[in-house]
Design goal:
Blueprint (H helix, E strand, L loop, with lengths): L6 E3 L2 E3 L3 E3 L8 H6 L7 E3 L16 E4 L2 E4 L7 H14 L4 E6 L4 H11 L7 E5 L9 H5 L2 H14 L4 E5 L6 H10 L4 E4 L3 E3 L2 E2 L4 E2 L6 E4 L4 H14 L4 E4 L5 H10 L3 E4 L9 H15 L16
Parallel strand pairs: 3-16, 4-7, 7-8, 8-9, 9-10, 10-15, 15-16
Antiparallel strand pairs: 1-2, 5-6, 6-14, 11-14, 12-13
Length: about 300
């Protein structure tokens, strides 16, 4: 029996549960040179805003002993250029397309999502209410349950396909925010965005990135992400896309057992861009070994003391 890796989230069918994480492969063009994007469950784009943004000046990433710190500051081409230059390429890809949307005002989120509604091949929107590196919008929205609910419900009015709420770990209770997103009509959650941190050069006493603080990603955040996925899974009923330090099929399986239906690979793409292909193969082999027919047999099945 061949294991079936397909999963379904909010009525959208994915060939496998492995997606790219926003911000880790731009709009997919460079990745498509390395492997056919049909190998992915979905491609998730870098956040798109209403106007183009240059982001923060360099240095805007720093390697730490336990992961990567970034404060890109939402650098992106803006919705106009995304529509004219990026969507035609994305429309040709034989994978699901999820567009991550960000903004500094709710009206901006709404306008971008309304524009994306015209493109059927934009299968889902991932609403970034959790960017740690901008002064307005982003994490500010995602830390306030009322604003979370409102942003989702307003976006749902203008975008007719499913909306995923990407949640921040930098909150007192991620479950409270997840419940607010659910209340607002979200169709799924992405859990988690990066954890706020900093790093300093001890010779110059200078912070290592120009924004002084940034988001920590990579394997160091995996245990935090797993716990947050499981907390949201236990208290809410929407499907979850798990994100945080995934480097192998073993990591993916941990996320599935904690309650994720799918996962996103982010920071590891900078080390091994074709890692999703390896992970898919390893996951299939694990399922065969464990005599599992479908991903469903793993979701939320963690055994607890
Ligand atoms: O662009 C960024 O600095 C950024 C974003 Br939008 C985000 O959602 N998460 C992150 O770690 N960096």
């Amino acid at each position: 029996m061949k294991p079936n890796l397909s999963v379904s989230i909010a009525g959208v069918d994915f060939a496998n549960p492995i997606m790219t994480a926003s911000g880790c492969c731009g709009y997919g063009e460079e990745l498509a040179v390395i492997f056919p994007l049909s190998k992915l469950g979905a491609l998730v784009t870098k956040s798109i805003t209403l106007k183009p943004r240059l982001g923060h000046p360099s240095p805007r990433t720093a390697e730490t002993s336990s992961g990567m710190l970034n404060a890109i500051g939402l650098a992106n081409v803006g919705i106009d250029k995304f529509v004219t230059d990026k969507i035609p390429f994305l429309e040709k890809q034989k994978t699901k397309i999820i567009v991550n949307v960000a903004g500094s005002k709710l009206a901006e989120y709404i306008e971008v999502c309304a524009r994306l509604n015209d493109f059927e091949r934009v299968d889902m929107i991932e609403l970034n209410i959790s960017c740690p590196n901008v002064d307005e919008g982003g994490m500010e929205f995602g830390a306030d349950p009322k604003m979370t609910e409102k942003s989702i419900s307003e976006v749902k009015k203008v975008f007719s396909r499913p909306v995923i709420a990407k949640l921040s770990p930098n909150v007192t209770s991620i479950v409270e925010i997840a419940k607010a997103a659910e209340q607002g009509g979200a169709d799924a959650f992405s859990v988690i965005n990066s954890l706020v941190g900093t790093a300093i050069d001890i010779e110059t006493w200078q912070t290592k990135i120009t924004n002084n603080k940034g988001g920590l990603t990579g394997p160091a955040i995996k245990p935090v992400a797993l716990q947050m996925v499981n907390a949201v899974y236990s208290k809410c009923s929407l499907p979850i896309i798990g994100i945080g330090g995934i480097q192998s099929a073993a990591d993916v399986i941990e996320f599935l057992l904690c309650g994720a239906t799918a996962v996103q690979v982010g920071t590891a793409l900078f080390i091994q861009p074709d890692l999703p292909v390896t992970i898919e193969k390893e996951l299939k082999a694990y399922m065969k070994r464990k005599k599992l027919n479908s991903i469903d047999e793993l979701i939320g099945k963690v055994r607890k003391y």
